[in-house]
What we know:
mainly alpha; 10 helices; Four Helix Bundle (Hemerythrin (Met), subunit A); Arc Repressor Mutant, subunit A; two-stranded antiparallel sheet; 2 domains
Amino acid sequence: xxxxxxxxxxxxxxxxxxxxxxxxxxxxxxxxxxxxxxxxxxxxxxxxxxxxxxxxxxxxxxxxxxxxxxxxxxxxxxxxxxxxxxxxxxxxxxxxxxxxxxxxxxxxxxxxxxxxxxxxxxxxxxxxxxxxxxxxxxxxxxxxxxxxxxxxxxxxxxxxxxxxxxxxxxxxxxxxxxxxxxxxxxxxxxxxxxxxxxxxxxxxxxxxxxxxxxxxxxxxxxxxxxxxxxxxxxxxxxxxxxxxxxxx
Length: 248
């Protein structure tokens, strides 16, 4: 398996993370990587693209959230057996969020998810409720196995959107979640806390409490903002301390 690197890599008016995403998806589209096949290790990808660890990880996390890759704990990243590549990457990958866009994106997500939650409660069928419960069960099982929860927590949000029976609601969530996830990963939310937050969202849906659903959406995203600010601030301070130390 090989991932080719275009000559224009690193020269285009896009972030390195966006370019890595495009290079990997191009390799999948052109058959250089097959469904079910394992990607090179993070170390190999860093060497191939001549970039830092954070850029590689952000790209991989975004591709997992998009449903193109899946993460196997301790084994690496694999192309999903069943996936759908975007026809046009340009709009989506241009929106892979930077730090300054993160809070605007979360604000937009809060507005949308509250309304999606209400619509889901009003329109859900018994089958929709079963699917949300199943998504929560799979999330809890993944937590118990020590797996990354990103695929499973994302699925909870997607199933809630599907319960609206509004195709645009589903499409908007499928577009927004990867953008949020690519930076939300840096918030390092403890798995137990992450699981608990999503269980509360699901519970509000299952019992049909629209007021509680709005509260849980706000609480979930407020915590995400708080964690991102805390972790990002610590990393900035740490970097500043190292720079200061090097100059002495």
